[in-house]
Specification:
This is 11162_t:CDS:1. The chain is mainly alpha-helical and 53 residues long. The chain is built from two helices and no strands.
Length: 53
């Protein structure tokens, strides 16, 4: 018995839902990137404050 393709449920969705999933993934990546940038900016500021204190 062959294994079913794991990508078939996604392909069975209508185009509007596929677009929604793709846009969510892109939006999540952008949010994550911004969170990481804020974290490192804050870390850098704290490091500079500790250095000059």
């Amino acid at each position: 018995m062959s294994m079913p393709c794991l990508c078939t449920p996604y392909k069975r969705l209508d185009l509007q839902r596929q677009k929604t999933i793709r846009s969510f993934k892109v939006g999540a990546k952008v949010r994550l990137r911004k969170m990481i940038q804020k974290y490192y900016t804050r870390w850098e500021q704290d490091a500079m404050q500790d250095y000059y204190v």
